[in-house]
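User: Structure with iron/sulfur cluster, tokens only please.
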Amino acid sequence: MTNKMLGFTNTEQHYPETMPVAARESNFDEIYGQFDPAEAAVQAARCSQCGIPFCQIHCPLSNNIPDWLKMTADGRLQEAYELSSATNNFPEICGRICPQDKLCEGNCVIEKGFKSVTIGSVEKYITETAFANGWVKPISVGSESGFSVGIIGAGPAGLAAADMLRRKGHEVHVYDRYDRVGGLLIYGIPNFKLEKHIIQRRHHLLKESGIRFHLGHDTDGRAFDEMRGKHDAVLIATGVYKSREIEIPDYSLDNIVPALDYLTASNRKGLGDSVPEFDNGYFNAEGKEIVVIGGGDTAMDCVRTAVRQGAKKVTCLYRRDRINMPGSQREVKNAEEEGVQFVWLSAPKAFVGNKNVQQILVQRMRLVAHEASGRQSVVPVEGENFAVAADMVIKALGFDAEDLPTLFAAKELKLSRYGTVEVNNRTMMTSIPGVFAAGDIVRGASLVVWAIRDGRDAAAAIHQHIMTQARSIAA
Ligand code: FAD
Ligand code: SF4
Ligand code: SF4
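Assistant:
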């Protein structure tokens, strides 16, 4: 099957079928389907094979998108998979949950006038085809290097680093406080965006590749010290988990819950775990009026989870407007389709209730251009307040880093002014020799694709560090 490229001139943009809205109400399955071979080839062939591919420039992994699109259009899928997986450890995950509208697809040159190439869906198709055909294999290590690396955190940053380091023949140990691998991929992001078997499939592959996982292993000061003694290098990839608080009157009323606790309970339930706080109704939105505060991906995941749990009404309060919200526009559209009501330009002013929250007093906001920077900021509109009824409020205002120098009893671990771990941008090393860091714990709350990129960069830096140390000992 060979398709001529430049198909955008006569072929319309088409995404795989999406689950009908009515079916989504009580269904946690992934809402996007997958291309069939003919559709994938025709959609890939819409690419104009740009000399300077802006899609690739705006992909954090610099994926060679035009080449794997051409291979897909030609039906050379195994080559397409090899090329795409050379720069991306988890293309089946990025193809599903990257905010493509802000990254590769949003910068595709045919977007203006013809609508972009459906890059993410093709990436997912290539990788799922590779899995189905048995082309995705565990790492086969030629000879063991004799060196070992300890990685704290089995999220995408830690897993990408583990994958790359194992390929170099190093013994890799991944430690995580959770009982499952994946970090936010497993307990944060809901099934309707990323089904859990996709992550578990990667876990099995990495295990078969010889990577050793130590789950239920919470790293504290003693464990960190032991790890440094045991391994030739240590990577901190612990993500950011401290929920930001809304310090307004009565913010500690019952039924005002942090987003990640709510999502974790729902994801665990979906995985078949016993979750008493869900079963007793505390984390269950069924029959309730739910208000989610925030405008990022986490808030979108909460509103859409509440819909699926059978909430009576789901409202999202965000202090800016739709254009200025940090979440992906695709997710807002999905939430709107599913019946979520957005109240833009609104900020909580006080919670009202006895033991439990019953209402939120809301302040109307307006956008103003910041004089110096020209950026939009928000200010209250004097006298414009209203109330929104709530049986449960979910706070999704973002996350900060835990205080790692205290947790790891390592005062010498330098932090940035945002509380994230500071690294040398070239070597990815922290202020502690032989200790590296990657992912959200360095960048602050970000994206999976950036965590993968950081994990890959850290692995390259760790390999170089270990080999340089080994050479200097030998000399
Ligand atoms: P994490 O994924 O957070 O993994 C860190 C791991 O470290 C965890 O498993 C944790 O248990 C472990 N850990 C932490 N401390 C310790 C310790 N002391 N000892 C042992 N283990 C420890 N990004 C997207 O690109 N697309 C999306 O659609 C998207 N949706 C999101 C939805 C939600 C609800 C959230 C919260 C985030 C979302 N993100 C999304 C962001 C994305 O999930 C993160 O940027 C990414 O997972 C960061 O990867 P990481 O490996 O740095 O950290
Ligand atoms: Fe686009 Fe993300 Fe894939 Fe890069 S990794 S091509 S940004 S979907
Ligand atoms: Fe193809 Fe769009 Fe990338 Fe150009 S920017 S190479 S048209 S996908």
